[in-house]
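Entries read sequence, tokenised fold; example below:

***
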Amino acid sequence: MKTFGRIFNGCVYLLLYAPLIIMVVFSFNSAKSTNVFAGFSLKWYKEFFNDPYIMEALGNTLVLAFLSAIIATVLGTIAAVGMYKLRNRYLYGTMNMVTNIPMMNPDIITGVAFMLLFMFVGREILGLNEVVGFVPVLIAHVTFNLPYVILNVLPKLRQTDEHLYEAALDLGCTPIKAFFKVMLPAIMPGIVSGAMMAFTLSIDDFVISYFTAGTEYNTLPILLYNQTKHAMKPDMYALASILFISILVLLVLINVFQEISDRKTKGVRK
């Protein structure tokens, strides 16, 4: 039975990762063919970094991911602290359900809803001609990143000893100073994990960005999608490989950081 389980797991992992491995391997193909591997070369990575359109999309993606992660982390931490302070369990349950909705909602529904919202507000209320671009995409990214930050910070708040905060108040700290001196260091691992997850999700997002970015503002996932409408070039394999490896590294760092944080928490409890 164990042997069958291992074989089954192996087949599942093979189906999951074989396409990604093939993509990474062919990104180093010296030939232009995307079917025959002719030899190892960094040619397509050089072309990737020399392409002005790709570099512009890369810059847009990094700026968008960084800003959305920072804003979502600040707002999400404030929201998590507010939810933690709630004493009404029905109100807390309602807030928790509302927080989970953006994660459960299909991306295409969220993207269409944001597009309609920006069109209505921009054209009908503000009278703008252009209602898509950087700012709408940033707002959309902050919105779908918020739940992940909240759900990373809330467990750390529950693990924090409330008596430390009360002791800081008794020793003369104001509530704000006590939060920054006592609570913030205690929940910092959750904040960092939430920020890294928000950054990763922002880099990876395509569907919501596609509906809110318009035709003039490109991110790497949108550029990659547009390239698939034509004959696929090997430098797109390089682009996809860089995206895959970057997100993989970030996810590994999130898990490692979370594991270190959990061990420290267990050590403090002992």
